[in-house]
Design brief:
InterPro entries: FAD-oxidoreductase/Apoptosis, FAD/NAD-bd_sf, FAD/NAD-binding_dom, FAD/NAD-linked_Rdtase_dimer_sf, Reductase_C. By secondary structure, the chain is α/β, with parallel strands linked by helices. The chain has helices at about 15-25, 65-70, 130-145, 160-170, 190-200, 250-255, 300-315, 375-385, 395-400; strands spanning about 5-10, 30-35, 75-80, 80-85, 90-95, 100, 105, 110-115, 125-130, 150-155, 175, 205-210, 215-220, 225, 230-235, 235-240, 245, 260, 260-265, 275-280, 285, 290-295, 325-330, 335-340, 345-350, 355-365, 365-375. It has 3 domains: about 5-110 and about 245-315, FAD/NAD(P)-binding domain (3-Layer(bba) Sandwich); about 115-240, FAD/NAD(P)-binding domain (3-Layer(bba) Sandwich), CATH 3.50.50; about 330-400, 2-Layer Sandwich (Enolase-like, domain 1). The chain is built from 9 helices and 27 strands. The protein has a 5-stranded parallel sheet.
Amino acid sequence: MKEKTVVIVGAGIAGVSAAQALRENGFKGQIILLSRENTMPYDRPPLSKDALHTSTPPATFLLRDEAFYKTNQIDLRLGAEATAIDAAAHLVTLSDGTQLPYSTLLLATGSRPRTLPLFPYGAPFIHYLRTSLDAQRLRQDMQSLPKGASMVIVGAGIIGLEVAASATAQGFHVTVIEAGERPLARSGSPLLSSFLAAEHTKHGVDIRCQTHIIDVEKGKSGYSLTLSDKSTLAADLIVVGIGVCPEHELGSLAGIEAATGGIAVDAHGRTSIKDIYAAGEVAFHYNVHYGTQRRDETWQHAASHGEHVAKAILGVPDDYSSPGSYWTDQYTFNIQVVGNPLGTSEVIRGNPSDGAFVIFHLNDSVICGITAVNATRELRKLRRLVNNSSALPQDILADPTTD
């Protein structure tokens, strides 16, 4: 593939990981990495945490430094948005009219935030959080308000709870509105939800579940929100974090098959059109560990799947069998989740009141996932139980003295 050209659309963690894996696995051809943003490719997890504090320099969020792209001869093009694909001619058209020929095209376009009509993107003191510009704008508004100002967060997922922890530390009165029965209903176990809800309450966060906003009125300063229980809530600042939608439109316009909102790919990342692949959050992919097609929205998946698809492009495919994982930092707690945290039952190892413990998630007797709270070292040993779908007696799992 020495004379081949791989064009990667999207310079998030999936795209950057794919570019790196191509070089590390011997690809000698041209790699063109397209980013529609004008900034160097950066990490997204800090946007809801460190990036909201002025003391953290943005350079620390970069996925790789400039030397990485030069050393690996990766043609990184910033402010380059792909707008069309001519699959027959093997051409990608950019927003400025430039046409790039490709031998292989990799779509790593990621996701965008779900929006609510009541809260238009870009409206004064209303925020969604996906890009570095989003984080900068939110931080500026937070700085402009006095201590004790009110922030309303719509959605008690990872983003919502991380912003709540950051905002509370900066003196905001925070209310979280969640339509579901509990926080982290999609990504966390009931035990973790209860633990984090209690910690947020200790820090003054008001979490209201099974509640939604039915009306918004803009006042001279701030907003007045009418809730589904007929109560009203004042908000100086509003942050919406209700999940994401895959950015599959570029592929769909080219006739690429989509499924459950993402780009449908096989076990090696191939789409329905020859020489076009997809990786990361946008891909509805096959996972050997689960034996099914799925779409994942985590940093670790994007990194691993980008590398996996790059190897497939080079003709050295491996089985994608990651059980999935994510992490979140809230207050003094580092929380890591491996595998499926929504089993049929849960077993706690350790004492939550000590601030460090493990939760085993079981499907019947099989360990399908593990949540570790301030227990990184133990998780390193235990995650093999998830990879192997192990089954152990619950009394052994619950006993911290048993290796």
